[in-house]
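Give me structure tokens for this 175-residue protein.
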Amino acid sequence: MTKVKSDSHFQGKIGAGEPNPLNVIDANGGIVVGAGYSGSSIAPANGIIVKGKAGFGTDDPITGVQIAKGLALKHINKTDSYTLTTNNCWVSFEGASLTATLPNAVSHPSQIFIIKNVHETNNLTVSTGITVEGVATYYGTIDGQNIVTIGPRECIWVGSGGTNYQILNHYDLTI
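Here you go.
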């Protein structure tokens, strides 16, 4: 490990865990930022944790995370039943007799999913559980229910409170 004075200046590129950096700073692994985290917390693999506020496109964030320009959410379309994961945020379903299954709410605290039924005539079932050999196992509820139904051309925003899901928004797309 190379120690550097706190007021050092570098020309070129810096690689943390990366012997051949391509950018001004390349980090191969997790990054920890802020007093109270630095030197005492472990970042997720190839991830980042920040103590304090973070601004993207702004030098004066007023909330925990502030994005000045906009936010692009990954969207996927499904024509078969599908179990959502942490990699999903916005999923559209089109087909007959489909089920959108939410992951365990305990494993996904604060996760928000946008679930859209784009079919013109069929309902979409949203479930918190799985059925194996005819036995249903549920992992939390959605507003107190194991299963909710979204009508044709409807959309819900569902958020995990760490134990169960809540419907944050429910709207009709035909209006």
